[in-house]
Design brief:
The complex is a heterodimer of chains A (338) and B (281). Chain A has twelve helices and 14 strands. With 338 residues, chain A is an alpha/beta fold. A seven-stranded mixed beta sheet of chain A has the order 4-3-5-6-8-7-12, sandwiched between helices. The chains are: A alpha/beta (338), B alpha/beta (281).
């Protein structure tokens, strides 16, 4: 297995072409825990599904399974944090943000406890599991909870950076990752990752796509296509939805005049609304469009089919971008890439 | 350590004073959950004046035992206990419920010195107690975690999620106590959502249930001694209590679940409490 050696917390990234972001999460956590005895992990019968078993293989005495009981999971995480520990609690995003939403709000966030909520299978990444297992509401819920930091990394590499960074956040963090089969966006960990600081993935002067999660790679691919058509697109990876990097938003508005937001989330309450608030509050004038799941429950299907159907793949994002720029989508007789 | 007759008299004197203060809080706050505050007062008194390892001079002392008022609506009983124990001045109680006060209908650990966990949304306390017990054991610390639940609160599924987990992990450092006063807002527990056979439910979840009269300090002491000494199986104390205990016209009366009191009513209530404790002077 193509996996680089690791020592302490100072290590190079695992080969994300052979590992899912969930596996990277589990292994990153194990590395961190070697240096920090405060780190423990909790799960609700999803040790394998959330890849916390990678942590458990190294620290069997530091992983606690509470059974299929999400309210207990997050209540217990709050209790453990009260004893001085830093619990990483994982389950599927939808069960975290809604099933246990009140425990997260009242037990964890209100008491400002350093519980790290690593929510896997976010968005439509578990599309074929059906709508019960989709989660396109979590950004809205978590953004509205005071004290909460909200992160959605672009890929496995960024997941590992974010996992390490969130240990130093004194309060709670909600981190949404996917199912782990998303293609990587970053080639290495050698970039500046700071919570609350957007990453400009590609410069551009005609318009800016502000994306998070799987939207980042797809936006980069869309930008490449658009460049061939003469549209120079900046791509901003807004991995932290809260606190939002307001400077990056305002710079995009001033310098490119067009902002398209891309998120695997309902267009109500997520990244798009967060960006829109900044623009409105600052009186920034630009063309603006929110692209995401348009206030519907998604169909059933494998994630990549759903991304294509809802226009969250490179083609769909490019279409949205052209529409914004008032350019017709060119005829395309090549169905190979559809 | 068992409760001696002398300790019993002393605890009863404290409980009387605290019950009188609950009536004051009812007046100052404009309304309080007086019934459920009075039903658990003897349990709180025994814990805070005899059993819990705490130091009001050092509210953040790491070695202290933890207490969670999962039935958070009994704050009108709990906050006076913290005050009486010396965490903050008695006069501060007059701010109860008012703008800027640290004290509300439900206790807030961000604001109340000596309060370990914010509570009020029912069904949250026991999962937190479970996590604390797990955290202490993982760190090899011997702190106890006592969690006081309401009996009506036991309708919440999360209580049983945590009960299952405490028993699964054999966390004898977690001690749930249920204030079994038998009344909810809409009727008796058995009318609204039957809990019986309640002890059998806990037994089936792996607990050693101890049923006591929750107003008898000798029985409370004996149960807490057993709970403190538990080795293999966690203990749950089911304390049979009377809602509104100590005020004759409030006892077992649903309207006094939450009530406001004018000066006439408060005077009547205090006279009733004094009368109930005639023997302690």
């Amino acid at each position: 297995m193509a996996e680089s050696a690791v020592t302490g917390t100072n290590w190079t990234c695992y080969d994300s072409s052979t590992m899912t972001s969930r596996e990277i999460y589990g292994r990153t956590l194990a590395e961190l825990a070697k240096a920090d005895p405060r780190i423990v992990a909790l799960t609700a019968d999803l040790e394998k599904s959330t890849a916390l078993n990678k942590f458990g293989e190294v620290f069997p005495e530091r992983i606690f399974n509470v059974g299929i009981a999400e309210q207990d999971l997050f209540g217990a995480a709050a209790g453990m944090a009260k004893t001085g520990l830093i619990p990483f609690a994982s389950t599927f995003a939808i069960f975290a943000c809604l099933r246990a939403g009140e425990q997260i709000r009242t037990d964890i966030a209100y008491q400002n406890l350093p519980v790290k909520i690593i929510a896997t299978h976010g968005g439509m990444s578990f599309g074929h599991a059906g709508t019960t297992h989709h989660c396109t509401e979590d950004f809205a819920v978590m953004r509205a909870i005071a004290n909460m930091t909200v992160i959605c990394p672009a890929d496995g590499v960024e997941t590992s950076r974010a996992i390490r960074a969130c240990v130093d956040v004194p309060g709670p963090v909600y981190m949404r990752i996917g199912r782990g089969f998303e293609p990587p966006c970053y080639e290495s960990e050698d970039y500046d990752f700071q919570i609350g600081k957007a990453v400009t993935m590609r410069p551009g002067k005609d318009m800016t796509i502000i994306a998070c999660g799987i939207g980042v790679l797809q936006s980069l691919n869309a930008a490449r296509t658009l460049a061939e058509e003469g549209i120079d697109v900046r791509v901003v990876n807004m991995h932290t939805l809260k606190p939002l990097d307001r400077e990056a938003v305002l710079a995009a508005a001033a310098e490119t005049g067009h902002i398209l937001t891309v998120e695997e989330h309902n267009v109500i309450g997520g990244l798009g609304d967060a960006v829109a608030s900044v623009l409105a509050e600052e009186g920034a004038v630009c063309r603006f469009h929110k692209h995401g799941v348009k206030d519907i429950f998604a169909e059933i299907g494998y994630a990549e089919d759903l991304y294509a159907y809802y226009g969250l793949d490179a083609n769909g994002i490019a279409d949205e971008a052209r529409r914004m720029m008032g350019i017709d989508t060119p005829e395309d007789d090549n169905w190979e890439d559809e | 350590m068992p409760v001696t007759p002398e300790a019993n008299s002393e605890l009863r004197r404290i409980a009387r004073q605290l019950r009188l203060t609950v009536i004051d809080v009812m007046a100052w706050s404009g309304g309080a959950h007086v019934g459920g505050s009075l039903s658990c007062m003897d349990l709180l008194t025994a814990l805070y004046f005899k059993y819990l390892k705490i130091d009001p001079e050092r509210p953040d002392w790491e070695e202290r035992d933890r207490f969670i008022l999962s039935k958070g609506h009994a704050a009108a009983g709990y906050i006076p206990v913290l005050s009486e124990r010396g965490y903050f001045p008695h006069a501060l109680l007059k701010t109860f419920n008012h703008f800027g006060s640290p004290f509300a209908m439900h206790p807030d650990s961000n604001k109340v010195v000596g309060c370990d966990v914010s509570a009020g949304s029912l069904g949250h306390g026991l999962p937190i107690a479970f996590g604390m017990g797990l955290g202490f054991r993982y760190q090899g610390r011997d702190n106890k975690v006592v969690c006081l639940l309401g009996d009506g609160e036991s309708c919440e599924g999360s209580v049983w999620e945590a009960a299952m987990a405490i028993s699964h992990y054999k966390l004898t450092n977690v001690i749930p106590i249920v204030d079994r006063n038998g009344l909810m807002i809409d009727g008796t527990t058995e009318q609204v959502m039957a809990l019986e056979p309640f002890a059998d439910k806990w037994r089936a979840f792996g607990f050693d249930p101890i049923e006591i009269d929750g107003h008898d300090f000798f029985q409370i002491g004996e149960a807490l001694d057993r709970a403190w000494a538990a080795k293999d199986r966690p203990v749950v104390i089911i304390a049979h209590t009377v809602k509104g205990k100590g005020v004759d016209f409030m006892e077992n009366q649903i309207p006094y679940h939450y009530a406001a009191g004018d000066s006439v009513l408060c005077a009547r209530a205090k006279a009733s409490i004094e009368n109930a404790y005639k023997e302690v002077d």
